[in-house]
Design a protein that fits this description.
With 85 residues, the chain is mainly alpha-helical. 79% of the residues lie in helices and 5% in strands. It has one domain. Strands 1-2 form a two-stranded antiparallel sheet.
């Protein structure tokens, strides 16, 4: 694998990690801490939405991010021909 292909693969990997980290930060800190008062005006499943994000919603989003990252990384590996058979 030449240097340009390695750099393209690494760029794709870093871009994916950056997107996942922004989503993680937004959900955990943004929805669970900064916007909790505004979100608490909305009810979800009988609970205030801010409370739900702080206690349960962020966990669901984190698990979904793990599955998304694994799925997308497998596709990136195949696109750059570094996948394992």
């Amino acid at each position: 694998m030449n240097k340009d292909k390695r750099l393209a693969y690494w760029r794709a990997n870093l871009r994916l990690m950056g997107i996942c980290l922004v989503i993680w930060f937004t959900v955990s800190f943004g929805f669970g801490v900064l916007l909790v008062d505004q979100l608490n005006t909305i009810r979800f499943g009988g609970f205030q939405l801010g409370f739900w994000f702080a206690q349960q919603g962020s966990i669901y989003v984190f698990v979904l991010l793990i599955f998304y990252y694994a799925w997308r990384m497998n596709r990136i590996d195949r696109e750059h021909d570094v996948h394992e058979d």
